[in-house]
Input
Amino acid sequence: MTYRSHADLGGRNVPGRVVPESEGEPFHAPWERQALGLTLAMGATGVWNIDISRRARETLPDYGSLSYYEIWIKALQKLLVEHALVDVDELSAGRLQRPARPLPRVLRAAAVPAVLSAGSPTKRAPRTAARFVTGERVRTLAGEVDHHTRLPGYARGKTGRIERVHGVHVFADTHAHGLGEQPQWLYTVTFTARELWGEDAPHELTVSIDAWEPYLEPSS
Amino acid sequence: MDLRVRSLQALLTEKGYIDPAALDLLIETYETRIGPRNGARVVARAWTDPVFRKWLLEDATAAIASLGYSGRQGENMIAVENTEARHNMVVCTLCSCYPWPVLGLPPTWYKSAPYRARAVRDPRGVLAEFGVTLPQSTEIRVWDSTAEVRYLVIPRRPAGTENWNEEQLASLVTRDSMIGTGLARIPGEPA
Output
């Protein structure tokens, strides 16, 4: 395995409490505002996609010790260097040392409302029939994979039921590696807590994930 | 971090990769225009208008767009309704997926390791940290947002609000109640 995500936290033993927070304070330091703005503005240039961004974040070796906006900034710097938009010496100097590279586009203020309200729809026209129907029992792939994936560790090798069919969507696993959209059917799959966590788990708890078709096999 | 981010912004501006005015507008939008009051309006409409409620449950993306909320991180919306028998709660164990057009940017705890780790395993323990206790008979249904579908919880309408209008009702709908870590406020309860 060469690919390692540090972000797959579901079910892990993590110290600390969940600390509630009042509404209306999305940022806790002035630089967090800039971290959001820079990340969104560079994302809008079209040099990379959201799955490549997630890949850059979850593979940061110090992911677990960083705050969320620190993760965003470190991943942004990594992406800028990987895509040769800036060089490492420019990052440390904070000054341009070499000319800019041409970008597909630059987000201008006038375009912001339209870009935000359009979003980046991931739904695509189906080219095949869905393999599974609502209510069907399925089993998720077991074992780890050597690339970005959105099948959480706690839900691997588990049997669940198809609860919803969401149509065909851009496949994060390939999209994150520059291998194209390769759209796949997407389903909500529901598991009992006992299937996920064992016999001591509460019987009145069910958990679902959203799973692309390649994550699933029929279960008899 | 402050210095690091400022110098990054200066570099990207010098390169011509970003327009500082666009940056200001992005930040201002999420600080002042796109936040949980949007979602509260959606919920209040669902509480008062049965036709809208049905539409929201069948096609949340379109129903929510009809109130003017759409786009980034809300392209595929699903609304899930709390009842006496079932309580819904939303998490993203893999990162911080969250329905931005209706709830704005996620709170720190939503992105934190303890919430992401425990919401799928011990949701009652998490709810207790928010001061919420549900009857043992209530089914807890946790939605892990692992793809590009975004979930909005419709909390239960509090008793004693029969004659309330939409605007009054919206004031009872908290952000946490739309994630499923809280309940709607009851009339008279402080904000």
